[in-house]
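@channel sequence for tomorrow's demo:
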Amino acid sequence: MLIPFTSSLSKIGGDFSGGLNVGMRGSGIFVAYSYRPSDTFGYGVEMRFFDLRASDEIVVYDYYTGTYKTKNQISLVMLPLLANVTYYPFVGKIANNFSPFVRLKGGPLIVLDGDEDINNYFDRWSKPKTHVTMGGNIEFGVLFRMQGNVSFAVGLGYDIFPMPEMIDGRKDYNGLIIEFTFLR
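structure tokens (generated this afternoon):
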């Protein structure tokens, strides 16, 4: 019977994970699967649901109607499906339960653009314009190993999301992003 080598900083094998993304252009959630064939390299896939916001979006109170309204609103959702490659450069060199990493991601982006001129939420999203493009991300982060086969990772990345045409006043939705990941 073969027993795979497992260091104190890494687990060789596959992990399902999920988490939160908070960025300059919006926020969202993601699910991912990653596989580590060795201590220093890994690869996987990630699918995000990313809700984008305008940089000058603001909620204001209308005294005449007694309701809140959003000004400069965009209705834009991205669904990136990104393949990734991860490198852990300091495995065996740090004597703790954390492991820094560098991750490159790339793949297709499905962009759903709702009609901002319609106030009703369901009508706005009943027939969104759909665009497909390619995008990517580079991320630097730290994986924290904990007891009970649970891990937590924090990463700082940069999304590269070019649009196929001008969408809601922008040709790209590039920007910094912080990723919080929970692995089991």
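heads up for whoever presents: The helical segments are 121-124.
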